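Your task
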Amino acid sequence: REDRLAEFRLGPAFLPHPADSAAPRQRATPAGRVPGPLPSARVLVVCTGNICRSAYVEYALQAQLNALLGDRGRAEVTSAGTEPNQALTVPGPLLDLAPSRRVRAALTQHRPQQLTGRSLADQDLVLTATDDHLDEVLREDPAAVRRTFTILGMGTLLRDHGEELAAAVPPGAGVTALVTALAELRSRLIAHGERPDADLPDPFRGPAEGYAAMAQTAQPIVELLAWEIARALDGDLVEEESTGA
């Protein structure tokens, strides 16, 4: 698992493409058509204490979705823990790693929540920090098996199979279509002996470097996932052709 984890620590696969700065993502709304509200999406992120991994991914992903979807967006990201301690708050080293002031403010105000069957109800997608957390989710709701993925497993699917997903999920197809395609892709990989899911280590009460490694591992996955969710929700969201690096 350490080998698989290393792939996500800001390696070449997640470094910005040279043309990225010239390829902004924007809406291509046909002239004369007033865009209406977008379909909704609900994402739940799960770890142990709900103050490090799941909290960071919750607010970072919400910020990315808000930026992509704008005022029409109705994507809601929440988080929960399998063993939360209500007396604890997000550690200072993680606050310092927040990708924006808004995310830092949200992390500062965050209070841990308990994972329950109710918190899993009506979620379109569930992300877990580890395989053990995935098992906890399925104990609460066995029917969630095809919509629950580890964070690193999601990163593997998006990074290594982006073109396949794009072909299977047209823009505006909806988040259910996206999650279904992801589940089918994971099943095919497992059938061929691959195991995409992996564990994101818990930095809690460890050195500052552990928090940095966690954030650097999670952030590029958050950005890839936010784009795929936004693309599935908004058929007018396109990636403008590059005009050159």
Residues 40-233 form a domain with the Rossmann fold fold (CATH 3.40.50.2300). The chain has one domain: 40-233. The longest helix spans residues 208-233. The chain is about 45% helix and 10% strand.
